[in-house]
Amino acid sequence: MKPRFYDFEQGPIRPPNEARSLLLRFTRNCPWNQCLFCPVYKNTQFSRRSVDEIKQDISTAKKIHDDIREISCKLGYGGNVNEHVVRKIFQSSDKSQSYKSIALWMHHATNACFLQDADNLNMKTGELVDVLKFLKETFPHITRITTYSRSRTVIRKTVEELRQIREAGLDRVHIGLETGYDPLLKFMKKGVTAEQQIEAGQKIREAGMELSEYVMPGLGGQLMWREHALQTAEVLNKINPHFIRLRSLRIPHHVPLYEKLKDGSFALQTDDGVVEEIRLFIETLDGIESNVASDHIMNLLEEVGGKLPQDKPHILDVIGKYQALPDEDRLIFRAGRRSGYMRSTDELAANRELYNNIRDLVEDVRSKQGADGVEKFIKELADRYI
Ligand code: SF4
Asked: From the CB of 32, is ligand 1 less than 6 Å away?
């Protein structure tokens, strides 16, 4: 008998901490799509998917889920989706990408679901409530449902509507705050003001949902870095989100900001400048209880994380340790981190062999291409992750 071919639609991205979640696409692309720094949805059109279409995908995901359990039982693992089951599925040429993603989700057993794409609160409240309820009925073991949304969209909903959405199952909203500095929001065409960001964040909290705010270190460039750090912290002090996540700016060639970089109207901040900006930002956060995370590969200092206010000294210590390094060691750490070999400044002392190898590499590049060549080399290493 011909094997059943199951497939459903998935979008291009999810937050780093949702890598092990079930990914379901509720809307397509971004309704705004104008932010100068954003590479994700360029040359695409936003569209809402119909309730029937989304429910169809959820049903297909459930069929795949049951099919995978059956495969596990046939292999003698009693429904457990261990690495042998996952390998078997990944080796099958008749399995779709979405099928494989469900296998990984079951293997990791996170019971979490992330709704793609950029702005699902853009759906009509009744329709979103309907599909969320259907999702919860279909997968009763899911314990966390999260999504992205825009502040401008959130403030169009009443707290009562947001509460209905919360009660239907949406636990957490990820918002790309990026900055709380109005001139920078305008320059980057974010399409939202600091006041609107505050209103949106407060509404999400009032409705009982968890809130994750993304901040973009480096976005102020060399001109606006200080105001960016200070005003972003001030906005977050008024919101008190559950999570503050750092995702540093990188500029791929196909985003509009690249043109501004080329014509000189935007000057990229240095790695050391961004670290100083983050220090000022963390110092200015006050009176809030957020979890700070630096869980994006674009960030130089991965250990900048912890719960406020108690972990603030630890976070500042991580930053201070980097800033206190001799110039050459900061360079070696940057090359080590951007090449993926180092994760913490502690490794500079703890792994001398690695330190010596990276130092020799940096020295080699410097002898052939000078100090600018070393900077170019480190930038190219970092840009591989874009
Ligand atoms: S709102 Fe978000 S997804 Fe849309 S363009 Fe801006 S950064 Fe990109």
From this structure: yes
pLDDT at 336 over 60: yes
Q: Model confidence over 10-43: pLDDT tens digits?
A: 999 898 889 999 999 999 999 999 999 999 998 8
Quote the ligand 1 centre to 243 CA distance (angstroms): 19
Residue to probe by mutation, ligand 1, list 13, 27, 32, most atoms within 8 Å of CB: 32
CA 9 to mean position of chain CA atoms? 20
Percent of the chain with pLDDT over 70: 99
pLDDT for 2: 54
DSSP codes joined into one string, 130-177: HHHHHHHHH-TT--EEEEEE-HHHHTTS-HHHHHHHHHHT--EEEEEE
Instruction: For the chain, give the mean pLDDT.
Output: 96
Q: Whose CA is nearest to atom 6 of ligand 1?
A: 35
- Other CB atoms within 10 Å distance of the CB of residue 358: 23
Expressed in angstroms and rounded, the spacing between residue 179 Cα and the centre of ligand 1 is: 13
- Cβ atoms of 308 and 289 within 8 Å: the answer is yes
pTM of the shown model: 0.93
41 Cβ inside 6 Å of ligand 1: yes
